[in-house]
Amino acid sequence: MLKRVISSFGIENDRLRLEWISASEGDKVRVVVNDMVAKIKALGPLGLPVKYKEWANEMHVLESEFAGKEEVYA
Fold it and tell me: Which of 11, 22, 39, 54 lies at a CB distance of 3.0 to 4.6 Å from 6, suitable for a disulfide?
């Protein structure tokens, strides 16, 4: 479910990983962290500023559509 949520924000699913690791599995922690760092580096920058601009534009469109209609919803 979390992958669906982050996907709706424009974040790639590969940026999220869940691992169950015991405190006694230090080697596994190292492997998982190194693997995740490599994947994130390969994906590059997140790119959310572009999404923020798109969302801001969508909000401006909605605001202009509802301008003057506030009394109807009050």
Answer: 11
